[in-house]
Inverse folding.
């Protein structure tokens, strides 16, 4: 069973909107910290947004997406969303979700599960 399955990527013009989904399998606890990352072609992967698990619910956003992105989480269905608006060409990349973070000194050191990713392409 694939642990995380992303969907919703596609091509959109700058200024447009997209909503990505990440469906977690039943093997993943629905109280895990979950996150969206993206990787532009030829560049390193970067965090987009994190929702802290264990009932905390604290959401963190990368400075580059603040005000343009929200990260709703349907805990009952264990599905994480990434609602993006005002898309820019620099938002282009492979978007992946991750689940179940390990922490050291309250900093995330790794995620136990990763999805295959969904491509987002924003054209000018």
């Amino acid at each position: 069973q694939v642990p995380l399955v992303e969907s919703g990527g596609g091509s959109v013009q700058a200024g447009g909107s997209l909503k990505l989904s990440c469906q977690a399998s039943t093997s993943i606890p629905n109280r895990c910290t979950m996150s969206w990352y993206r990787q532009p072609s030829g560049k390193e992967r970067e965090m987009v947004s994190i929702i802290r698990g264990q009932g905390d619910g604290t959401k963190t956003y990368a400075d580059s997406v603040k005000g343009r992105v929200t990260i709703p989480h349907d805990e009952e269905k264990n599905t994480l969303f990434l609602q993006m608006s005002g898309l820019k060409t620099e938002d282009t990349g492979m978007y992946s979700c991750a689940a179940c973070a390990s922490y050291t000194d309250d900093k995330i050191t790794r995620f136990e599960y990763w999805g295959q990713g969904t491509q987002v392409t924003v054209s000018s």
Summary: The radius of gyration is 14 Å. The mean pLDDT is 95.
